[in-house]
């Protein structure tokens, strides 16, 4: 079993599907939450489980939100009790609102949940193919509790990217990262990434 426990991936589209399969291939325990699990092909050949959202949340230590941002509030309302005490990893973007993250919403509706943000500032194509000239790109993330950083870093690393810490409790900087990337996507294409260099 994965050292970080089970990750529920809520959403089986391009973002959720790509991330969940990468997590599973890296050896992490993954359960996809799907409205129609019997018909879902999200797991592919990874051996990950597919269940209802209720079952996925109940089984999870970490819950990745990869659903349309407009659905986040209803999801939190429906699953508030089951999400209590769990790590909620927000990959959603609330376009066209100026604040893209759902940190305030999660913390208001599920006060005991631990909030983190990652996977919002890159396109799914990067998660599917995260290397340029043989070298991985970096992905920014934030957590509110430093104790949750190893879990988020493990999931970022599972995708093949290098975790880049954006500070404690700074989901606004993750929003800014996406705003910076959007013009680059328009100029260079969606599989455009970042690489940090240092001594």
Write a structural description.
With 199 residues, the chain is an alpha/beta fold. It has a single domain (6-188), classed as NAD(P)-binding Rossmann-like Domain (Rossmann fold, 3-Layer(aba) Sandwich). The protein is 36% helix and 21% strand. The protein contains 7 helices and 10 strands. The chain has helices at residues 14-25, 53-59, 72-83, 103-109, 124-128, 149-159, 171-188, and strands at residues 6-10, 29-33, 49-51, 62-65, 87-90, 114-117, 131-132, 135-136, 138-143, 162-168. The chain has an 8-stranded mixed sheet with strand order 3-2-1-4-5-6-9-10, with helices on both faces. A two-stranded antiparallel sheet has the order 7-8. A hairpin with a 2-residue loop joins β7 and β8 (135-136). The longest helix is centred in the C-terminal third of the chain and has 18 residues, at 171-188. The protein is globular and about 45 Å long. It starts with 5 loop residues before the first strand and ends in an 11-residue tail after the last helix. The mean pLDDT is 96. GO terms for molecular function: oxidoreductase activity. Residues 8-93 form the Pyrroline-5-carboxylate reductase catalytic N-terminal domain.
């Amino acid at each position: 079993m994965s050292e970080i426990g089970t990750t529920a991936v809520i959403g089986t589209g391009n973002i959720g599907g790509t991330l969940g399969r990468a997590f599973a291939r890296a050896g992490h325990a993954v359960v996809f939450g799907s409205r129609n699990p019997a018909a879902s092909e999200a797991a592919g050949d990874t051996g990950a489980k597919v269940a209802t959202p209720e079952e996925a949340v109940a089984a999870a230590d970490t819950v990745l939100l990869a659903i349309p941002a407009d659905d986040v509030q209803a999801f939190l309302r429906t699953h508030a009790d089951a999400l209590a005490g769990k790590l909620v990893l927000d990959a959603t973007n609330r376009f066209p609102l100026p604040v893209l993250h759902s940190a305030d919403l999660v913390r208001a509706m599920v006060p005991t949940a631990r909030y983190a943000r990652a996977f919002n500032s890159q396109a799914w194509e990067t998660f599917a193919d995260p290397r340029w000239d043989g070298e991985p790109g970096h992905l920014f993330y934030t957590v509110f509790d430093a104790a949750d950083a190893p879990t988020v870093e493990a999931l970022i690393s599972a995708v093949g990217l290098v975790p880049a810490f954006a500070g404690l409790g700074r989901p606004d900087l993750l929003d800014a990262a996406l705003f910076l990337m959007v013009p680059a996507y328009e100029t260079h294409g969606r599989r455009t990434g970042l690489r940090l260099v240092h001594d």
